[in-house]
Specification:
mainly alpha; elongated; Ferritin; 5 helices; 168 residues; 0% strand; single chain
Amino acid sequence: MKEHLAIYLRDHHAAGRAGLDLARRTAAGTDLPEPCRGQLRAVAEEIAEDHASLELIMGSLSVPASTVKDTLAGAAERLGRLKSNGSIVSRSPLSNVVELEGLLAGIAAKEALWKALSLIADGNKALKGEELRVLLERAQRQREVVESCRVIAVQRAFAHALATASPA
């Protein structure tokens, strides 16, 4: 059973590394108005702290990160940047939407991680229930912030799409 937990933690570590890269890129590259830009920078900083917390938990459980998984997840995140966004040389409004939706998916996965670890925390000194509760609450706040920015991004990207579409 310990091996299953180790695999689970390594998978989340790798995905978290890619999510951190996405969060930083999104925060740095977004053209959304304030306060979204500042909020996304703050979320990216918190995601870095969350990733460090996961590494501490893994260390306390004697679970090393997987260099292979981390490298593959990082490569997948970079390959994801090559997607078509409707603009060849510049950032498009669609980039904000897609990146924020990816960030939401990563935050939801991180919430699930903290919940899962909370379920097995009793009786395990390496898993501190109060710390996991704080991490879970922070992930929930991050999700709310990113969702509010995503709503603005969707409105900016698609506001005129239906207004200019001809009726069928």
